[in-house]
Amino acid sequence: MKLSTRRVAQLAVMVALLIIGAYVSIPLRPVPITFQDAFVVLTPLLLGSTAYIAILAYLLLGLVGMPVFTGGASGLVALSGPTGGFLIGFLLTALVIGFLADHWRWDSWWRDLALAEGSLVLIYIPGVLWLCHVLLLQGTTTLAALIGLAPILALDIGKMAVVAALARPLRKVLAEG
Question: What's the chain's Rg over C-alpha atoms?
Answer without folding.
Answer: 16
